[in-house]
Amino acid sequence: MPELPEVQTTVDGLNKTVKGLTIQEVWTDLAKKTVSRPDYKDTIKSLSFFENFRETVRGKKILSAERRAKNILINLSDGHTILIHMKMTGHMMYGSYTHDATTNEWTPATHEKNDALRDPFNKFLRVVFTFTNGKQLVLSDVRKFAKVTLLSTKEAHGTKHLAGLGPEPLHTTFDAHAFIERIGKKPNGKIKSVLMDQSVISGVGNIYSDEALWLASIHPLSIVSKIPPVEQKKLFTAVQAVLHKGIDFGGDSTSDYRQIDGTRGKFSYQHNAYRLTGKKCMKPKCSGAILRRVVGGRSAHFCSIHQKLWE
DNA sequence: TGCAGTGTTGCTTC
DNA sequence: CGAAGCAACACTGC
Fold first, then answer.
1. Residue A182 annotated in active site
2. Which of A2, A5, A169, A220 is catalytic?
3. Structure confidence by residue, pLDDT tens digits, A116-134
4. CB-strand contact A124/C, under 7 Å
5. Is A298 considered catalytic here?
6. Residue A206 CB in 7 A reach of strand B
7. Does at least one atom of strand C sit less than 7 Å from the CB of A278?
8. Tell me: the pLDDT tens digits for A136-163?
9. Looking at A54, A58, A233, A298, which residue is catalytic?
10. Alpha carbons within 13 A on the beta-carbon side of A164
């Protein structure tokens, strides 16, 4: 489940691999003649959109990749930007792949030396960009939730895809004061849900919200306005700490997420709460155990003892 | 075997 | 207006 650290790791990987390369061709198995949902009309799930997308990006050079919230932005030489949101199970990889015309499927090329690309989770390739150097950038996505669309670079941040997103929690100008002001916009909200609300702060999802609340010793069901300012400040520090740690460990591969070379991110081994239901709390001297509860339709994992409920 | 669980977003409903 | 529920989708595990 790519959150800020996973998307950042992918973007860093793109800038090390495909930056400067020229797109020769694009393939997808997502495009359909008719799209089931209105919000798919301006994505490559629409066949007419994909045909236009393909014509536009062929022959264009990749200038750079950047991240906004959980979105990947790939800037092209003609003033267009490819926007990719990996949603739940999406991940991008770069390597040598071959296309089987009979099955219409892509697999790692026989001369590809990187075994990580053959990880079972790295199947289900939905979009494949082939570069003029003969190599591929692929989007793997079992559940086909990922969004791929095309924007004008100049207008990208003003489009519905990016406008309305909250500030970047790791931006240099984002401090504790700004954090408290942002979450204060949802005074009656449950803190876990508010942390994950992309219009409040961008980039935090289920894993990092659980980890940040564990670190800050705050119960996920705490009501924002009831959390004392000093505790909110601690939470801000915790949010930044877990996001930085996630990036340092190359993201979280508990599920399908993989780095650009197909290898697993190592943050999965650093959890103190997420998916540790029934385990003893790892906080020094704490005698609690990790519980699981559904909060706002999502599973929250937290310590039964040291995470204080403010209500 | 059937169904709950997995998590992000956006649309619908209240 | 905001909050909550559900659909999009495919696979795993009990």
1. no
2. A2
3. 999 888 889 999 999 999 9
4. yes
5. yes
6. yes
7. no
8. 999 999 989 999 999 999 999 999 999 8
9. A298
10. 4
> A3, A6, A112, A211: which one is catalytic?
A3
**Which nt has its C1' nearest the CA of A294?**
B5
Q: Supply the DSSP string of A66-107, one letter for each residue.
A: EEETTEEEEEETTSEEEEEE-TTT-EEEEE-EEEETTTTEEE
Q: Which pairing describes strands A91-95 and A80-85: parallel, antiparallel, or unpaired?
A: unpaired
- Helix-helix angle A229-248:A206-216, to 10 degrees: 130
Nearest CA to A27 out of A191, A137, A152, A171 is that of A137
| Phi, psi for residue A289 in degrees, rounded to 5 | -130, 160
Q: How far lies A198's CA from each of A3, A193, A311, in Å? A: 11, 10, 23
Q: Name all domains of chain A by residue range, CATH numbers in brackets.
A: 4-158 (3.20.190.10), 176-303 (1.10.8.50)
Is A2 an annotated catalytic residue? yes
A35-44, A91-100, A254-263: which range is least confident on average?
A35-44
Among all protein residues, pick the one whose CA is nearest to the C1' atom of C2: A186
Other beta carbons less than 10 A from residue A293's beta carbon: 14
Mean pLDDT of A39-50: 90
A:23-52 Cβ neighbours of strand B under 7 Å: 37-39
Residue A34: which pLDDT band, with cuts at 50, 70 and 90?
A: confident
A144 touches strand B (CB under 7 A): no
pLDDT tens track for A66-118: 999 999 999 999 999 999 999 989 999 999 999 999 889 999 999 999 999 99
Does A3 participate in catalysis according to the annotation? yes
* Residue A35: pLDDT band with limits 50, 70, 90: confident
The answer on pLDDT for A197 being more than 80 is yes
Distance CA A273, CA A9 (A): 22
